[in-house]
Structures are given as C-alpha cells and as structure tokens.
Specification:
Chain lengths: 401, 502
C-alpha cells in the first residue's frame, strides 16, 4: 500500500477527435481549466506540473513542452515531461508520497492529426524501428500477435470463428460505450457485420474497426496529498498503487509473442502493492490499440488463463450485456469506449482512462455508470507505451486499511 | 537499429543479417550485443557474431499489409511477418518480397506460415531523389519458389594453374518477366536495382567458387545504371559480401566501379587476370561484376526503341590462379570514338544513333575484336567450341556470329537476351555463364563483348576439368533462372511500374 496516499481531486479533458484548427496549447489549456474549475483551485496553488506527450517534438515540432506550459499557466514551478499519462502520474505520485509537493497538475496531450500524412510512419518508427524498416505498419504487430495466439493455442474451425466474432464484439461493445460518452471521438454504434466485413475487404486478420483511431486531445487531473485532498473534496479518489515494467522495443525478438510480459509484471506489482487481487477489480480500462490487444490484456491482467479469454468474451456477449463475465463475476472493460471509440491521442490517452475511473468511482458517470453487487470500490487502468514496450497498471479507489 | 543519422552514415548495418550467440549459455540474439541477458557481466565480450546472410529461415507468422507506411507505398501491398532462424532462437521482422498480389486474390496466411525462406538483399524503402538509397536483408523470398536456399561452403583451393582464369561465377536475374514477340525479358521487382543485382550475382559466384570471401583482393563493378552518379556499387558489394579481410567495419579490399556502356565489366577481365598474376600484388583473387537495370525511355519517347529489348540482371566472375575452371589464354581489345549510344548526366534514359548502332558500331567493333583475336591465336571458327557475342537484341549477335563463320550450335546456347533481355554490362557475361554451365573440360570459348562509345573486348578461354567438379555447387544457374517455373509474367503497364522502382 502506498504511504502518504496521493489522491485525485479533479479531472478535466477535451473531446477526442480531430481538432483541426486548435493549437496543441489550446487543448491542454481546455483540459487544465476544466480540472481546475472542478476543484476550484488557482494556478498559484500548483507546486509542480507533470505532462505527457508521446511525440510532439517529432510530429508537431514542439520541443521543450514545459516552456509553453509555463507561458500558458504563467507558472514557473518545476515541470517535467513524460511520454504517457501513467508515467506522468507515476512521477507525480512519487513526489507527493515523498512529501515534496502537496498539489500538482498532471496533464497529457497529443495532436496527431496535424501530421496526418506521416503519422503512421512516425508511430511505427518510434514503436519498433527494425519492424518499420522491414516494412511493418502500426497495425501489423497486432495482427502477428493474433496469428501467434491462434497458432499457439491451436484454435481452428469453430474456435477460430468464435474468436474472430469475440474480437468483433470488443469493437461493438466499445462503440456502444463511446455512444454514451460526450467526449468520445466516435459516438455511434457499430455492428459485428461492419467489423467482419472491414476485415474481409482488407483481407487481413484485423480490419478498420479493430483499431483505435488517430486522435487529438488533452486530459488533466489534479493530484494532491491525502491531507489537502480532504480539504478539497469529501470523496477523493486515491491512487492505491502503480506497477510498471518494460520490454524490448523489437516485438519479433521478444520471448513470447502471444502476450505482453511488461503488462504481466506491471499487474503483479500493482496488485501486490495495493494488496488487492484482480478478482477485486470489476472495472478496468485497458489499452485497446486493437481488439486483439484488449483480449490479450485481459489475460495478462489475470482474468482468464492464456488462450482462453476469447471464450469468456464470446460467451459474455451472447447475454447482450456490455460487461464481460470472468469466473462468475462481471468485469466492466473500457466503459468510456476505450481507445477504439473514445480515441487515442497517445500522451492524453491514459488521462481519459483516469477521467473515466474517477467519474465511475464517484458515481458520476451518468449513462455509463456501472454498479457492482458489492459496490464499486476499486478500479484499474492498464496503459502501454508503444506496442507493450512499457506497461503501467494503476489501481484507484477508496482508501483501504 | 540505431539512430537515424548513424543509419545514414553507415548505411550497411541492415544489409547483412547479423546475430550473436553467447559463448556461456548459447542464447542467441538478433543484432549484435555486448553481453547476454542470462549470463550478465561475465559474458561481456563473449558473444560470437553469427551470420544469417547465407542461412535459411522459417516464416513463422505473417499478415497482409494493404496500407503500408509512406516509405513502402510503392509496393502497394505485401506479406509481412516474422522469420525465425535456428528453431526459433532468433526472430526477425520480415517482408516477403518478389510478390505482386492481385486485388482479387484470396490471401491464406496459414499456407505461408511454416514455409522456409531465404534472406535477400534489397532496397529498404523509398527515399527522395537526392537521398542515400538504404538497403536491407530483412526482405525474404520463399525457398521453395524462384530462389532456393544454397549453402555457402568454404573450401581451401588446391590446384595451381599456369594461367589465370575463372574460378567461380554466378548469374542473377529477377523473378518477373515480360514476354513480347517471342522475347522474354527480366524485370526487376520494385526493390531491386543494379546494386542489388550486383550483390546477388557476387553472392552466387562466391557460393559457386566456395572461396573464402576474405581472399578476394579487388572488386570491379561495371554498370551503366548505378542509382548514383557518384558512389560506387563496388563498395556496397565489398561491404555486404565481406570481400577482403574484415578489419573492424573496414574491408581490406580494393573496389572500383567501371563504365564503358555494355563492356564496363568485360573490359576488366584482363585487368583481373593481370592483377592476380602480378607477383607483387598480394592479390590472389579478383571479382568482376557486370549488372544493369537496363534503362530505356518508355515507348514513343525519344530513345524508346530500346524499351523492347532492355532486361535486368547480371553476372559475377571470380578470377584467380588456383582451382581454375576456365583459363584465359588470350585477349584483344579495340576502341574508337563512335557515339552510337549515350546518356548525358542527369538524364534518366539513354539515347542511341538509330540505324547507325548496327554496321558502323556493333558489327564493326565485334568483328574487329573477334577476328583479330582468332588471327592472333591462329584459330578458325571451327577450332572453337563456343562463341559468346554481346547481345543487345536478337538479330545482331546472330548476324555477326554467322559472318565470323560460327554455326548455330556454337553461339545459340550463348544467346540469353531472348530470356532475360539486354542486361547491358551483364549481357556478354550472362552469355558466358550460360556456356560455362554446359561446357565440357578442354572446351575453347571465344567471348566478344561490345560497349557503345565504342569498343569490344575478345577473350579466348579454355575450360579445365574442375569445371565439372564445381558445377553441382550451383543450383541457381542460367538455365534454372531462364526456365524457372516460378518466374512471373507481367503486362507492359506493370513492367514500366516495376522498372520505375521504389
């Protein structure tokens, strides 16, 4: 359990999608203002800022992002940059736990549509350069992982068909959730047939509807020490633990091609620190860069044994529920629409996951609000940098003893 | 993979597939590293480099790419996946090359997974016109199709010969062909050019000779379609094939490009022979490569007449004085300033002198060089077993061979331009390779090349008994490539598209 527990007291975000005319600075401004208004703090209350963006310097030619954040906020406090929101939150938590700061801003930002023409090249070059130079695309590693999964677990005939449908259902479920999220990039439902026919048209294992889009957007949250949090809100959401791990950049060179070692390690560490088991978590936001990644992440989280998650997914969906069922318990996954429907502006993506958990844990998720038999007390995010090169699991919830 | 600027400075890092193996535990890694993750610090500097360039792999997993990244859009679509070596100990990302995938074709990934593949040497991806052309060997082809895997077994040369001669050779041409009016011509795939053909031909020559590449002291690369105005093909060949002793990342070899239209390579045979014979040269073997992605303007453009004859490919010959398969007994060369064919710097396509390319150019010089050499050696056409003329089109070589008194059986086996097109600097070399594929020991061969601008080189060769000993080492010979059932025939539009490259 984290000592001197950091707490989230406010969240803010922009809509995800294409913000054609907006500068990246405007997006982070919008997110930060929303969060600051929610908890009614002034910028002078901030002692430090942590901000994530995956590749603004490369894609948007904006370097030293801390500098423009300083101009924006007219703040001269310490500011640090990371690549993912979870990494920013992790650094912020460490500072608060160490007693260095009491109130900090954590923000995330990406403006990918600015360089629509070269964004997939940038993504792949940064994610896995050898694969990029061999001709790989941002999508191909996902498809190869799915092929590896199918082969390793010997899925043929009806099993393979059901797996394919189960993955289509992942996209359908995420779009159904996105339809209830006013910030989501895609707020419309799709059908299994649409997913399947897009794959067929592309002649590939995964198609257009299996992948998260390219997005612009920003997210922010205010993180405080436990003492400050209690002065600001009667329902702070505590960061109970963060687990993190790293893996090879080059996907083909990894030991096991059918899952993410980094995710597995991060999950183990996060659960140990929080003294919780995955069975205690009925709500998770996973990094569904693709439908296959959502399925494999659920195995890495430990909800299902390797090679079996597809069956639970397939069967859960037969009930018409938006939640999955693992070991007799409902598990709600990507209630905001996930990366698929909510959008995936890399540096801001994790912030949207925390935004959702904060709303859900406080019972403020409106139409998307989930309920669990024992009451929703904990929830988690699993966020990646790259194709599982870095993994962060963060458990949020009410203070436990 | 290292940083982009370093990649640009040492553009050969991805050229020759490399891996390493821990001396302590045997674990293998893609790319070279300094210590093993199992053994830690005690394994520092105890990792052996392993070379996958002549190895074969297995396509473990694959998918289809129909929307490549910007650098690969010229390929439209391709199969991409993961290739493993040594029973899965090493895995690398891999693009299957040499595949044109029709829009209506069903793609069955599982039928490709598990197949053996051979690493090939290709252009890595598209770049701007002024940029370095990056190359890579993470491009593979199916080993049970056009280009089978061949082992490179090194053996020590044994027998000394009095005269220098050919000790090994290899011919390379592409899988794609266009067939028009009875002539088949080779067309490079998008990622092929004269550099990749030169490397492939050199690789096959090394395999055939079974010579340690470190023993080669000089490499001459003749071409008129080098993608660069300044930057030698020979340097790329030397680095990728590790010619000469390796000294860190420098090869102890002399490398030079030569240019004289279609005789750029044949002209160097005598230089290679002289070099390996000169006692103070310290060079026992020299390699000569002639390779071209023969250029021609599209039909209807000025110079577009050539478009009916141009091909793609080349051949490499290794010269030395040990284990010789064909001794070079004599030569004769001639030159005159005859502008029958030229390409100005910066122009993409050559121009030619129309009907004047025949009598006052090709025939005059070939006739002169061939007859002068026969005269010099006191030989009649009937004393020779084979005649290999330069072959820019199907009619010129036949006319000159007949005029010189040769019979069809003496020269027709050498006429390969009807199978691969005119491979420019490679044309007479490919013809010679075809003859060496079928000749018997003690056969006498007359080769006469022609280069526009203009000149001819004639060589008199006599085969040895070792010709037969080495023959079975080379499965990929001229006939194998010409009659390959996996060669794919394409239409004119596709041909021009492929010819334009990445």
């Amino acid at each position: 359990m984290m000592q001197n527990r950091p707490a989230i007291v406010a969240v803010g975000r922009t809509k995800f999608g294409e913000h054609y005319g907006k500068e990246p600075e405007k997006l982070i401004e919008e997110a930060w203002l929303a969060a600051s208004m929610e908890c009614n703090i002034e910028r002078k209350d901030l002692e430090a800022c942590y901000m994530s963006d995956c590749f603004l310097p490369i894609t948007n030619k904006l370097g030293l992002q801390e500098g423009f954040l300083s101009e924006l906020t007219e703040l001269h406090v310490p500011m640090e940059g990371t690549r993912s929101f979870s990494a920013a939150l992790s650094a912020a938590c460490h500072a608060i736990q160490a007693g260095v700061y009491n109130t900090v801003l954590v923000g995330g930002l990406e403006k990918m549509s600015d360089r629509w023409d070269k964004i997939r090249d940038d993504l792949m070059l940064l994610d896995d350069p050898w694969s990029y130079f061999a001709g790989g695309t941002p999508e191909s590693n996902h498809e190869l992982m799915l092929r590896a999964y199918i082969k390793k677990h010997g899925l043929t005939g009806k099993d393979q068909e059901q797996l394919e449908v189960a993955l289509a259902q992942v996209a359908v479920k995420n779009h159904a959730n996105g339809a209830k999220n006013k910030y989501a990039q895609f707020q419309r439902k799709i059908t299994i047939d649409q997913v399947l026919s897009a794959r067929k048209a592309a002649r590939k294992p995964l198609g257009l509807y299996d992948f998260a889009p390219i997005s612009d957007g920003a997210t922010a949250l205010i993180l405080t020490s436990e003492t400050v949090a209690k002065q600001m809100t009667d329902r702070p959401v505590f960061v109970l633990s963060i687990g993190a791990a790293t893996d090879y950049l080059n996907y083909p060179a990894r030991e096991d091609l059918t899952h993410f070692v980094a995710a597995e390690l991060a999950v183990k560490q996060a659960c140990q620190t929080a003294k919780l088991s995955v069975a205690d978590l009925q709500l998770v936001q996973v990094n569904d860069q693709s439908t296959a990644m959502e399925m494999i992440s659920l195995e890495d989280l430990g909800y299902a044994k390797a090679g079996s998650a597809w069956r639970s997914l397939y069967e859960s969906n037969q009930t018409g529920q938006l939640s999955y069922e693992f070991n007799g318990k409902p598990v709600h996954v990507n209630t905001n629409g996930g990366l698929k429907a909510d959008g995936n502006p890399l540096g801001a993506t994790g912030g949207a996951q925390f935004f959702e958990l904060y709303r859900q844990l406080r019972g403020e998720a409106g139409e998307r609000q989930i309920t669990t038999p024992e009451g929703l007390r904990h929830a988690a995010t699993l966020e990646f940098e790259g194709f599982g090169t870095k993994a962060y699991m963060t458990i949020l919830g009410e203070k436990t003893q | 993979m290292t940083s982009e600027p370093i990649e640009r400075r040492v553009s050969y890092l991805g050229d020759r597939l490399r891996a390493c193996r821990c001396q302590c535990c045997g674990k293998e890694y893609f790319e070279v590293r300094d210590y093993c993750s199992n053994c830690g610090r005690k394994s520092y500097n105890k990792l052996d480099n392993i070379d996958l360039f002549y190895d074969k792999g297995t396509l473990e997993l694959c998918t289809y790419i129909n929307e490549p990244t910007n650098k690969f859009t010229k390929l439209s679509s391709y199969i991409y996946g993961i290739v493993s070596f040594h029973d899965g100990k090493i895995r690398v990302p891999a693009r299957l090359t040499d595949q044109l995938i029709a829009d209506n074709k069903t793609i069955d990934l599982s039928s490709l997974e598990g197949r053996e593949v051979t690493p090939r040497f290709r252009r890595r991806h598209s770049v701007g016109k002024g940029d370095i052309v990056p190359t890579i060997s993470l491009a593979f082809t199916l080993a049970d199709e056009y280009y089978p895997h061949q082992e490179y077994k090194i053996s020590q040369p044994k027998k000394d010969y009095d005269l220098p001669g050919i000790v090994g050779y290899g011919m390379y041409s592409s899988r794609f062909r266009i067939k028009e009016e009875g002539i088949e011509r080779a067309v490079p795939f998008f990622d092929e050019d004269s550099v990749t053909a030169a490397v492939e031909a050199g690789k096959l020559a090394l395999i055939h000779s079974s010579l340690d590449s470190a023993l080669i002291g000089k490499i001459y690369a003749g071409s008129e379609s080098n993608p660069y105005a300044v930057k030698p093909i020979a340097a790329k060949v030397a680095q990728v094939l590790k010619l000469g002793k390796e000294d860190g990342d420098i090869q102890a070899v002399d490398a030079v490009d030569t240019e004289f239209a279609c005789k750029a390579a044949s002209s160097m045979f005598k230089d290679a022979c002289a070099l390996v014979s000169y006692p103070k040269s310290n060079i026992d073997y020299a390699m000569v490569i002639g390779a071209d992605n023969s250029q021609a303007a599209p039909r209807g453009w000025p110079g577009g007449e050539l478009d009916a004859f141009v091909g793609y490919g080349g051949a490499a010959f290794i010269f030395g004085k040990k284990d010789v398969i064909a001794e070079v007994e004599a030569w004769y060369s001639c030159t005159s300033d005859t502008p029958d064919f030229w390409r100005r710097d910066g122009e993409p396509y050559p121009m030619h002198g129309g009907r004047f390319t025949g009598d006052p150019a090709y025939h005059k010089h070939v006739r002169n060089a061939a007859s002068k050499l026969m005269e010099q050696c006191n030989l009649k056409a009937s004393d020779l077993n084979y005649f290999v003329p330069h072959q820019p089109n199907p009619s010129f070589p036949v006319r000159i061979a007949k005029e010189l008194g040769f019979k069809e059986e003496q020269f027709m086996p050498a006429i390969q331009m009807t199978k691969f097109g005119n491979t420019y600097s490679g044309a007479s070399l490919v013809g010679l390779a075809a003859i060496l594929d079928i000749a018997k020991p003690d056969d006498r061969i007359l080769v006469t090349s022609y280069g526009s601008g203009a000149g001819s080189d004639s060589y008199l060769l006599r085969t040895t008994s070792q010709l037969l000993d080495k023959r079975n080492r080379q499965k990929i010979n001229v006939k194998f490539l010409a009659e390959n059932p996996f060669a794919e025939f394409i239409d004119y539009t596709t041909y021009r598209r492929l010819k334009s490259g990445m």
